[in-house]
């Protein structure tokens, strides 16, 4: 994945020269002749670094930085400046500008600054990890890019990370990405769903137990904290953890030691904690269901995953990404989605988020009989998804079609009799049949069998 730089300068010659230098260094480059144009480019695609001239007609470099920083606070901006405006540029660095370069500058100095900025934004190489750390996360969304930039920065530390987001938004996928980008990437990543394990077993699963410590404990059991030592432990659905166990977890996080159930001694552990939940933990704390001290211990850095409906620009990317994966899995030669089918995917409500999209793509692929997935398959798959509310027009159309089919089955394809049962005249009834592409003769054949 090429790292992207946005160049902003109202001097076409300098813009061209900088573009050539950066492209020869392996970067993907977008250019903008003004600050206003740069903001338009930024709305469509988030770069890893912005390089802008300080003095430009219209919006200058500092005004551009202010506009960028409001929407994308983690996006590094490098400012190019002449000698006379150095004090202004120095002041800008105090306000968050990554760095400034004084014209004329050496190409090597520029590339060094860009590489350093890339490392900050999550676009740089680091022992071969950065090119692949977030490969499983498919996005062009600026909101997601900002969140990933923040995730990449925190990955280098051992700070606890708290991921919030609705079910199906990809919390474990993000947790694995943070682990891959961290210094612990060659150690274990272990995930546990705190809401899926019964309370009596969860303590033993996390901390381990000694033989004979309870009925059924026929041998020593190593807990997940020890299994993950040196690596990362992902505590999914932490909001479902019972209060009694929250106290014990807090003690482990404070002391960096675990005591297996039935043991008399503690065992030191070195574990990076990433936790996640779809619950509103602030409300849970207010209701006494989640400990405030544990919350702040876990929530050192917070990452919030947006709903799929808030990143609709990613739906075509994700749908085609899943299609490519599943096409190989099922060995089916399906090229893609019909335009109206993709339009329906983009406009669907997606209460189940990315997980629901994956399920819909899988269903449409398995049922596809043509090289292109049509709108009907997508419509049916969305309708079959639990929790999906069908638009009124679609629900009415479905009811009418099913109703007409049942009438014709009852009358053996006799249109006159079916029209009388429906209390509609024959002409109107035929129009309904034509609208829904229903052939009465097919029901006559069925009744004779």
TrEMBL record:
Pfam families in the record: AAA_lid_14 (PF25601), HTH_8 (PF02954), Response_reg (PF00072), Sigma54_activat (PF00158)
InterPro entries noted in UniProt: AAA+_ATPase, AAA_lid_NorR, CheY-like_superfamily, Homeodomain-like_sf, HTH_Fis, P-loop_NTPase, Sig_transdc_resp-reg_receiver, Sigma_54_int
Gene Ontology biological-process annotations: phosphorelay signal transduction system; regulation of DNA-templated transcription
Residues found modified as 4-aspartylphosphate: 53
Alphabetic keyword roster: ATP-binding, DNA-binding, Nucleotide-binding, Phosphoprotein, Transcription, Transcription regulation, Two-component regulatory system
Domain Sigma-54 factor interaction: 137-366
Domain annotation Response regulatory: ranges: 4-118
GO molecular function terms listed in the Swiss-Prot or TrEMBL record: ATP binding; DNA binding
The keyword Iron is annotated on this UniProt entry: no
Keyword Transcription: yes
Name of the protein described by the UniProt record: Two-component system response regulator GlrR
């Amino acid at each position: 994945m090429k790292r992207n730089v946005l160049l902003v300068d109202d001097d076409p010659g300098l813009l061209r020269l900088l573009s050539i230098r950066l492209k020869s260094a392996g970067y993907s480059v977008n250019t903008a002749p003004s600050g206003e144009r740069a903001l338009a480019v930024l709305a469509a695609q988030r770069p890893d670094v912005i390089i802008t001239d300080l003095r430009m007609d219209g919006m200058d470099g500092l005004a551009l930085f202010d506009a960028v920083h409001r929407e994308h606070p983690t996006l590094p901006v490098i400012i190019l400046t002449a000698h006379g405006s150095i004090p202004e540029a120095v002041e800008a660095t105090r306000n968050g500008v990554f760095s400034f370069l004084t014209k004329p500058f050496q190409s090597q100095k520029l590339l060094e600054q860009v590489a350093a900025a890339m490392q900050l934004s999550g676009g740089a190489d680091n022992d071969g990890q950065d090119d692949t750390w977030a490969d499983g996360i498919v996005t062009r969304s600026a909101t997601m890019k900002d969140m990933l930039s923040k995730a990449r920065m925190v990955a280098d530390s051992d700070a606890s990370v708290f991921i919030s987001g609705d079910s199906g938004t990809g919390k474990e996928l993000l947790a694995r990405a943070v682990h891959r980008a961290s210094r612990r990437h060659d150690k274990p990543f272990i995930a546990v769903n705190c809401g899926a394990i019964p309370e009596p077993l969860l303590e033993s699963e996390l901390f381990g137990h000694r033989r004979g410590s309870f009925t059924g404990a026929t041998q020593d059991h190593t807990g997940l904290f020890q299994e993950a030592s040196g690596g990362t432990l992902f505590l999914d659905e932490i909001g479902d953890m019972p209060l009694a166990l929250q106290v014990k977890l807090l003690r482990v996080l404070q002391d960096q030691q675990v005591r297996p159930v039935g043991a008399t001694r503690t065992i030191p552990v070195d574990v990076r904690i990433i936790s996640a939940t779809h619950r509103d933990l602030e409300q849970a704390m207010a209701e006494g269901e989640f400990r405030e001290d544990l919350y702040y211990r876990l929530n050192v850095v917070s990452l919030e995953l947006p709903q799929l409906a808030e990143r609709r620009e990613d739906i075509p990317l994700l749908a085609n990404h899943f299609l490519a994966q599943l096409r190989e899995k099922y060995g089916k030669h399906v090229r893609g989605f019909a335009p109206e089918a993709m339009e329906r995917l983009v406009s669907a409500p997606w209460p189940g988020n990315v997980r629901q999209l994956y399920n819909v793509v899988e269903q449409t692929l398995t049922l596809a009989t043509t090289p292109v997935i049509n709108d009907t398959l997508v419509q049916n798959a969305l309708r079959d998804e639990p929790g999906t509310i069908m638009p009124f027009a679609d629900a009415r159309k479905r009811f009418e079609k099913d109703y007409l089919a049942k009438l014709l089955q009852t009358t053996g394809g006799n249109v006159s009799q079916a029209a009388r049962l429906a209390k509609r005249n024959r002409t109107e009834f035929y129009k309904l049949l034509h609208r829904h592409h229903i052939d009465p003769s097919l029901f006559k054949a069925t009744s004779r069998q």
